[in-house]
Design brief:
- The protein is an all-alpha fold and 695 residues long.
- Helix content is 53%, strand content 3%.
- The chain has 26 helices and seven strands.
- The strands form three sheets. It has a three-stranded antiparallel sheet. A two-stranded antiparallel ribbon has the order 2-3. The chain has a two-stranded parallel sheet with strand order 4-7.
- α3 packs antiparallel against α5, α10 packs across α18 and α15 crosses α16.
- The longest helix has 33 residues.
- It comes from Nezara viridula.
């Protein structure tokens, strides 16, 4: 996540904050999983409490605003101490997966859940909505969030166990090699990821895809059903309708789903052009027996387990393949780079902006290489231990360009932690969860430029003004940034539908693939059934990590980048062709760093539109900066697709996605995936029963 990984136990408590990468597996996945602060949280009316919570010794002698301010000081201190304990337990488990560390993590989270529930009962006594000070009111708004701790103790512990089991299945899953069936010790990192990146054998890729989905996702379906049931119970105890409403709390918008769908409609034309171009390149390489030239793209061909980033296909899809590759991995190896040196290079980027260096404990306690003899979550992640001194990254670093850029991203999270470390605990979070990811990636945008890589001595003999080279560079970024957009959106559209009861267990797999077909334009390489549970082949699903933050971040990072480039004098919005936005690097610009730091210091002390305005002068998210960044590529793609007569979009997939297709007598116009009859009967009976109760 980045991780941005949210281990459910901590996210349920609303405590630990570690960030990682969006792409599980490929650590550029940057950007994918942090624990979402108050991920399962809700407003509790100051005059009432959620069902199931017991009120003990309620009244306090002094509930004045002055007394409330003093109470908050004490509360922030106590929260920080508990968060430190919880994060340490989560770190110990994630860096050494054993029964002992799991038991410790479960025990710590259960103990803190009890404490938090008792503290919540005390906190809701204060009539905070009647206070005048907006700062006090905002802190109480966050403090009256209970999250999954509202569950009865046995349910809370069971939820923790279920999510931990799913995470363990994912993290320890192994498959057999395609060429040597006796070698059944291939892990996602690094072996499977490496095969997906390098292999151009469609049968090997299909084998890897099918076996990974069987070893990881297929074993989690029943556990996931239980997770959904208990999590929704917890959401309702927080006066929320379901977990979807709870997850989107920090975006502070009643129309959030509508807002992000509008963002998608802005950037969709660019994605469709990319998709059509890539499908043609794949068709040229593999032929009509492997994929259709007008249908969805088989997901196993995209160089990534989830087809969420296409950067591994650059070698045969580049606009100008004859030019030297922009991947500096070989140069990193040639220059004897180590994991530590890569981290030091990233730190130098931040200090050149007049931002903070990594503190001593960062270098002492971070895990930057995979230790031998231990099972651990290798997903790149950044961690805040809430004591103002301890900040860490956990990452199984490989000496390659992708990981060099991932380090810049993860260190962006650490920089955010460092900048708001003096805020009260209740404000130690990004303005919204998308902001944290965007900050990591806005640094990535500059670090990946041809200009910056030349400055580091990693790109030699290249002319940064060469139009063909720059188009290749822009295309390579689009293979990462643009390709991700629909996946970043549908991951949570899918889960929101489950939490809301729109998608039921009987059609879990079908509905997953319907969304992937609709938004990504991909299909499975083989027919699927409801015995499969393909969503759980993605870490963020099994680890209960909200994902729409990555979609949001991929939009707003370009807004941030444009503003920082203007401040650095590297982009003129009135003459964008003089210094194109995609060529801008803010390296060594103290002015840009100071502007960024001013926003980072706010944490979540202000609503996110206020924080965005500090940096960009805008109060809304929009996709115009992203489109401006990729405009030269967009124009080129349209020209190429017109030349070859490509279909923009895709015809319906011929694959079976899960629920068996209906007989040929299905009425014209009806969905080929109708709801099962027993489900409809059950719903009708339930409706009748509820009607009787209401009389």
């Amino acid at each position: 996540m980045v991780l941005k990984l949210a281990g459910p136990p901590l996210s349920m408590l609303g405590f630990s904050q570690f960030r990682g990468s969006w792409s599980s597996g490929v650590l550029l996945d940057r950007k994918m999983l942090k624990l979402l602060l108050f991920t399962t949280a809700a407003f509790i009316n100051e005059f009432g409490i959620a069902a199931g919570a017991e009120v003990s010794a309620a009244s306090s002698n002094d509930l004045s605003e002055q007394a409330a301010a003093e109470y908050l000081k004490k509360l922030n201190k106590e929260f920080g101490e508990k968060a430190n304990l919880a994060t340490n337990a989560e770190w110990d488990y994630g860096s050494n997966i054993t029964p002992e560390t799991l038991e410790k993590k479960l025990n710590v989270s259960a103990e803190i859940a009890k404490w938090k529930k008792n503290k919540w009962v005390e906190t809701i006594k204060y009539p905070w909505k009647t206070y005048k000070d907006e700062n006090i009111k905002r802190q109480f708004k966050f403090a009256t969030i209970l999250g999954m701790a509202a569950l009865p103790e046995d349910k809370f512990k069971r939820l923790d166990e279920v999510t931990s089991k799913m995470e363990s299945i994912y993290s320890t899953a192994k498959i057999c090699d395609f060429h040597n069936k006796s070698n059944c010790n291939l892990s996602l990192e690094p072996e499977i990821t490496e095969i997906l990146r390098k292999s151009r054998d469609p049968e090997e890729l299909k084998h890897i895809w099918v076996e990974w989905h069987k070893a990881s996702g297929g074993k989690c379906k029943k556990l996931f059903e239980e997770y959904v049931q208990i999590s929704n119970e917890g959401a309702k105890l927080n006066n929320m309708t379901d977990l979807a409403e709870l997850w989107n709390f920090d975006f502070e918008s009643d129309a959030f789903e509508k807002d992000i769908l509008e963002l998608w409609s802005q950037v969709k034309p660019l994605y469709l052009q990319m998709h059509a171009y890539m499908r043609k390149k794949l068709w040229d390489k593999y032929g009509e027996n492997v994929l259709s030239r007008t249908g969805p793209i088989p997901a196993h061909l995209m160089g990534n387990m989830w087809a969420q980033t296409w950067s591994n296909l650059f070698d045969f899809t580049a606009p100008y393949p004859g030019l030297e590759s922009l991947d500096v991995t070989d140069e990193l190896i040639k220059q004897n780079y180590t994991a530590l040196k890569m981290f030091k290079v990233a730190e130098n980027f931040f200090t050149s902006l007049n931002l903070s260096a990594m503190p001593p404990l960062f270098w002492e306690r971070s895990i930057i290489e995979k230790p031998e003899g231990k099972e651990l979550v290798c997903h790149a992640s950044a961690w805040d231990f809430y004591n103002g001194e301890d900040f860490r990254i956990k990452m199984c670093t490989r000496v390659e360009m992708e990981d060099l850029l991932t380090i810049h991203h993860e260190m962006g999270h650490i920089q955010y932690f460092l900048q708001y470390k003096d805020q009260p605990y209740l404000y130690k979070e990004g303005a919204n969860s998308g902001f944290h990811e965007a900050v990591g990636d806005v640094i990535f945008l500059s670090a990946a430029t041809t200009k910056h890589l030349q400055r580091l001595g990693l790109l030699k003999g290249q002319n940064s003004n060469d139009d063909k080279q720059e188009l290749n560079s822009l295309f390579q970024r689009a293979l990462d940034k643009v390709s991700f957009l629909p996946f970043g959106l549908l991951m949570d559209l899918y889960r929101w539908n489950i939490f809301k009861g729109k998608t039921l267990p009987a059609t879990y797999n079908r509905d997953w693939w319907l969304l992937r077909e609709k938004y990504q334009g991909v299909e499975p390489p083989v027919d699927r059934t409801e015995q499969d549970f393909d969503p759980a082949a993605k870490y963020h699903i099994v680890a209960s990590v909200p994902y729409v933050r990555y979609f949001v971040s991929f939009i707003i990072q370009f807004q941030f980048h444009r503003s920082l480039c203007i401040e650095a004098g590297e982009f003129d919005p009135n003459n964008p062709s003089s210094k194109p936005l995609h060529e801008c690097s803010i390296y060594q610009s103290a002015k840009a760093g100071n502007l960024l730091g001013n926003m980072l210091k706010l944490g979540s002390s202000k609503p996110w539109p206020d924080a965005m305005e500090v940096l960009t002068g805008q109060r809304k998210m929009d996709g115009t900066a992203l489109l401006q960044f990729f405009q030269p590529l967009h124009d080129w793609l349209k020209e190429q697709n017109e030349k070859t007569g490509e279909k923009i979009g895709w015809e319906p997939s011929k694959r079976n996605f899960g629920q068996q297709q209906q007989p040929a007598t299905t009425p014209a116009g009806a969905s080929k995936y109708a709801a099962p009859t027993d489900v409809l009967v059950t719903l009708v009976c339930l409706a009748c029963f509820l009607r009787l109760l209401s009389r």
